[in-house]
Amino acid sequence: MSDFVKKYGVDVTRVDTGHYRATNPAGASLEFGTGEGLLSPVELLLAAVAGCSAVDVDVVTSRRAEPELFDVHVNGTRVSEDGAARLSDVDVEFSLRFPDTDAGRQAQSMVERLVRISHEKDCTVSRTVEHPTTVSFRTTDA
């Protein structure tokens, strides 16, 4: 049983062949697809995994000091099992650097622990990817 429930949703609209726009209820949008200059849906998933933990780490560390470098690299391997594709071996690497000040050193000292907590507990995206999740599809008449 869930301790806390929050619903999320986005609408995806076709912009052009292979080009789509995802829009959330607040009106923020992101374009993606298969064309040049667009992130693919798989790359969006990787960005979501990295971004979820990046937010977790940034919110806490930036209360102490503004980072001089805050980069997160993520990759995964597309595999096919019985003809069905999925990602495997998703790897997330944080590269952070803070100023050489008391506050900066305090922020830097928190990074490893915050990344671990995000992975084990707080990042909804990576935890969803790692655990079986029911996904249902349906069609409606327009």
The tally of beta strands, per DSSP, is 5
Largest sheet: 3 strands, antiparallel
List SSEs in N-to-C order: EEEHEEHH
Strand order of the largest sheet: 1-2-3
Please state the CA-atom Rg, rounded to the nearest Å.
18 Å
**Poorly predicted residue ranges:** none
Structural class: alpha+beta
What would the principal axes of the Cα set say about the shape?
globular
Q: Report strand %.
A: 25-35%
Distance between the termini: 35 Å
Helix content: 25-40%
On the 0 to 100 scale, the average pLDDT is: 95
State the main characteristics.
142 residues, alpha+beta, 3-stranded antiparallel sheet, two-stranded antiparallel ribbon, 3 helices, 30% strand, globular
